[in-house]
Amino acid sequence: MGEPAISIVEHEKRQEWWWAAEKKRSSRLDYLRKAIWKKGAIGGLYPQGLYVDLERPVLQTEKARELESSPDPYVIKFAKILAHVLDNKTIFITDHSQLVGYLGSLPNTITWDPTLAAVLNHEVVNDPTCIQEPLEESLKIISEVADYWAGKSDLDKIMPYLDLDDAMKVLSGAIGWGVPLSRGGYSGKDYEYIMTGVHAFEDIIEELDRRIDEADEKAHEPGASKEISDLYDKMNMWEAMKIALEAGIRYAKRYARLARIIAENYETDDERKEELLQIAEVCEHVPAKPPRTLQESLQYDLFIQLFSRNEAIEGAWPARPDYYHGPYYEKQVNVDKTLTKEEALDLAGEFLIRAAEVSQYKVKWAREGLQGIEGTWVWTLGGVKKDGSDACNGMTIALLQASRLVRVANPTFAFRWHPKVSDEVMREVFECIRQGLGYPSIRNDPVLIANAMNWHGHPIEEARTWAHQACMSPAPCTKHGFQPMRMANATVNCAKIIEYVFSSGFDNVVNMQIGAETPDAATFTEYNQVFDAWVTQMKTVFSILVRPVNRARILAPKMTPRPFLSAISERSIESGLDVCDPSISRGNAWITAFTWVENADSLAAIKKLVFDEKKYTMAELKEALANDWQGYEEMRLDFVKNAPKWGNDDDYVDTIMLDCLHEAAKFSRELKCPSGNSWPILPENVSGNIHYANIVGALPNGRRLGDALYDGGISPGPGLDKKGPTAVLKSCSKIDHISDGRAFLLNQRLSPTQLAGEKGYQLWKTYMKTWADLGLDHVQFNCVSDEILRNAQKDPEKYQEVIVRVAGYSAHFVDISRKTQDNIIQRTVQGLG
Amino acid sequence: MEDRELITDIQKFAVNDGPGFRTNVYLKGCPLRCVWCHNPETILSNPEIYWKRRLCVQCGACLEVCPNDAINPPVDPALSQKEGSPYRKIIRSRCDLCMRCVDACRYDALEIAGKPMTVEEILEEVEKDRPFYENSGGGMTLSGGEPTAHLEFSDNLLSGARDRFIHTCLDTNGFCGWSVMERLISNVDIVLFDLKHLNSEKHRALTGVNNEIILKNLSLLTKVGTEIWVRIPVVPDFSDDIEYHRDVARFLVELPGKIARVDLLPFHNYCQHKYDWLGIDWIYSGVEAVEPAFLEIHAELYREKGLVATVGGSGFETNVMIAGEEAR
Q1: CB A489 within 8 A of CB A180
Q2: Interval A395-419: pLDDT, tens
Q3: pTM > 0.90
Q4: What is the complex's ipTM, to 2 decimals?
Q5: Which of A246, A360, A415, B144 falls between 20 and 30 A from B292, CA-CA?
Q6: Which of B128, B291, B312 has its CB closest to that of A807?
Q7: Domain B48-113 classified CATH 3.30.70.20?
Q8: Which helix (H) or strand (E) holds B190?
């Protein structure tokens, strides 16, 4: 009947990875993968069928109203609101699932936290695409909630205490994005405390009780001191932490109860009945007690992640799942034999699916910036243990395999490469890349461990526990090393630095003075004057964005505390201080540097064409830029074509890149975070290159207002790396990835034909070895897809580096005749070329 | 002044021309005239001009500076940029390669094919990718054009690479006196030996020369013991017949010494634009590329005879890596 079925091998040969995965995965994973709703917004709009969940905002608002007249301190009120949500939100169990818990009330809901920012609430009111019918009724609820939180949201509370001048410049959207809030950003976690099977919620509650009793006694000793007075704040904090943990345990038990009800009253399938009873048992055990099995460990982790997202909006999901779940995997699969590899693979796959479905309502610019994904959930795999030995285990392999079966766009993986990783694991990593997942990205573990020690003084054992706190940034998972909140506000649109050199700091796009009032660039007669102005602008812009974060970190413990996150952090449990309190944190801050490379290319073009060759004057250049190069096309082409560009192993421009980085690194040591540590820069981009296209004016690298910026980190400009991938790595290797910055993103394209077969693996492995030898800290691969090649046909200038490689011959794809290009695309898709 | 030769390209990250990651150096000038040639810019030993249709905006700057009336007047760029348009910018018969038009072009549409370089300049460029050679067993591949046609220069370049401990491959068509070959191979780790056809008449018909001297050189090379990778272009209606490959396989195993591996290189037409840039008509322009997967059958014939054979010549085939290690 019907068409003959296509075999898995045939799908793989055609590089139809999704169809191959569909046939390879278990029926359970297949069901679960298809039972989730895609949450990532495309072009800033949420996909059809999703709607904003109103249950939680209503619960939060009704509880907040009720507590208005209560004498409770704020932190306890906040914890009670969190508990109210967990106690009353709708829960459900998806058929075939083994892990439970979802942020919203139904699988197609996006959760909305109205307590964070009034601007976010205004967006919900005005977002007709995802409001639940009946519309009128929903809008009434939304506006009541929005009204209630107006003036009471976290941002409303914090803003008046920031430097107003800085705040206005940040809000202009020209130089940065994000907000300085402790309940809206990227939280690291003290996994070494909470995920090592030693402490679970009940243990912590016991300790909190003990500490409260002790403090209570001490507080009643005679005498008056600041220390005694502070004990009252600590007791409140501990109390709030307890409320949050107890609510978490109750929430899990609601699932246990639901699973039992279904099993005992409704489920007719005996096998499923057993599974439901198993879920009940798991949820009765975790998070109250430390997990005993892989399923419990994953469920425990999932609960913690969900509670954290009930407390705050989390734009990232820092995790090291193979390291922390691996011991359970090893014990059950390899020692006790109570779980088969296939069963473990199902659990690993479901864990990815449960994470993939989580969604939190975001403002449109954030959605645009993330392009189709919910957040930057980069899970860290591989790496070393505290003693330096290889940390890879069965769970590493299970997760890599599971990712190819479920193929979710988020979370993604980043793999901590080191010389002791086994060939078996390397092959699994490679397979994910070959199969076009776009991940794992590869991180150079020895380099990044040294980097963490160098920049933030993390001791080596702690540095070795690092996980990605956001897309790129390493942070230890230890008591004092982890960073409770990365406030995205310290994200710099660096192309503005060189732009401001020519406008003396005035921003012509948003019409306000943002940068420093450096001297008129038209009067510069030496390159050094240009560079000095650049340094001044760099320092000014960095400071504007870092100051609010430093201030907010100090304000956070009192104004926007995190009782749940504190409750799973050893340092807070011990001290009774909020987890964001800088006094108990070593500090692990970084400045995300978007659109960084434009600076080096622009400075090189100025140096060569204005000062070396004297073809143009600074006044002419200033004029051309002020006119967005209009009327200066020949001159513009000169700046594009006849100036050296980063990424070609050319010392002329590569040295300028180093000059810029060295100045930034020097300043990073002067800028201090509230814990007294430094603010190194971290060049990367997310989708900032597109977001900022209309915000960055004309630049001396020949770019016009509106042109997309370079695609990221220290990657060369698209089409400007004319000497191929080896030259790119050579240029990047001139940067010292330990001391010149915190991390450096590099994108590389590989063609699927190069990666085919055993030779493909050998090629990649050798390439990786050289990458590691050169001391780079990051690389991520895009397979050259038919889509990339189609784009290259449309926009050849940006894809000049795409090379067709056959024996004894080489040419750039963009030069080849259209018909042949079409032919190559066909081969690329089919993987035969 | 130090000796310079024309180089059409120094291609890094080459992965199909000898083991590992390689840097290919393409010399300009070749004694053969293979009609399917994939690198037409390397055939003549003088500099030539590329005119890149896609980039030309028809501004007319080249016309103004041309002293020989060798430039066609501008037309609507929409027409001239179209693929397959008969319009050409340079009238080859009148052009004396003074290159003034190239200097005048602001749009990179005119470019010189063949840049004079010294051995030192080339080696400096080759040296840049050293970290890639060391991990992959890669190095420099001297190609062309035909390196044996530039004896002194090639010898200096190969020995220069040797002095720097860079692995060397010589990609040659074998059409030279034995003394030339003998001198060059003293600084060569692997010879990539092109075998276009066993039949001399057919060879002459499509390459312009007989093959006796080539086959003799191949035979002598096997006696010397230099590692040899035979590279066989598989060209439609010329060298794609199964029976023919059976003969080649037999021929290769009957040679006095060992062939380390055989690479079947499928004909492709990716180079069509280069003919267009040079203003030359190519008789293969309508011919479809040979599907690499189809050549697996051919490759099997060699494997049956105990030879290592690949389709495409990847420098990362595992069996090859092992063969390479044995040779060392």
Answers
A1: yes
A2: 999 999 999 999 998 899 999 999 9
A3: yes
A4: 0.89
A5: B144
A6: B312
A7: yes
A8: strand B190-194
